[in-house]
Write a structure and sequence with these properties.
Immunoglobulin-like; about 0% helix; four-stranded antiparallel beta sheet; about 170 residues; about 50% strand; five-stranded mixed beta sheet; mainly beta; 2 domains
């Protein structure tokens, strides 16, 4: 009996499949013709056509997860000024937890002027306010926005770009 092994990468998961060619003989001399049947260890044939593969969501259908959305265009901020930033959320089907927002990697003189920023259950996002001091560092920057849940420990990060220019 000739078996061929196929490996493929599908949605980030490595899959290895052993396949017998049509008409190849099986160990007991029978031919493998019907892919919807299988033999149990005792030798009895059973149908596998209507059996579920797994009880978990298929990749891309995670129930209790979330993703953050941030502005696509760089945010313009001037020394001594402020700029609003909307952080949105895309919730999985059964995800209704509060997501606490943290921003890291801000340059000297730039702060988030929103006390305890969080996306509450049922809401679609939170509005933050970036503030720059009169002597804030000038240039183009990237900061990391991280959303974390308290109960499940799930987290998600996204980057935002912004420019600090002279007043």
């Amino acid at each position: 009996m000739m078996k061929m092994y196929f490996m493929s990468m599908c949605m980030g998961m490595l899959t290895m499949v052993a396949a017998s060619g049509c008409g190849d003989s099986t160990k007991d001399g029978n031919t493998a013709a019907d892919p919807t049947t299988a033999r149990t260890p005792s030798g009895a044939e059973t149908s596998v056509a209507d059996k579920p593969v797994a009880d978990k969501p298929v990749a891309g259908e995670a129930d209790q997860t979330f993703a953050l959305s941030v502005p696509f265009e760089p945010i313009a901020l001037t020394q001594g000024g402020e700029a609003p930033v909307r952080i949105g959320i895309n919730r999985g089907e059964n995800f209704e937890e509060q997501v606490n927002i943290e921003i890291s990697g801000l340059p000297n003189g730039v702060t988030v002027d929103t006390k305890d920023p969080a996306i509450t259950p049922g809401s679609m996002g939170v509005d933050l306010l970036l503030k720059a001091t009169a002597d804030a560092s000038l240039g183009d920057f990237t900061a990391k926005v991280t959303g974390k849940t308290a109960s499940s420990g799930a987290d998600f990060s996204e980057e935002i770009q912004f420019t600090v220019s002279q007043q």
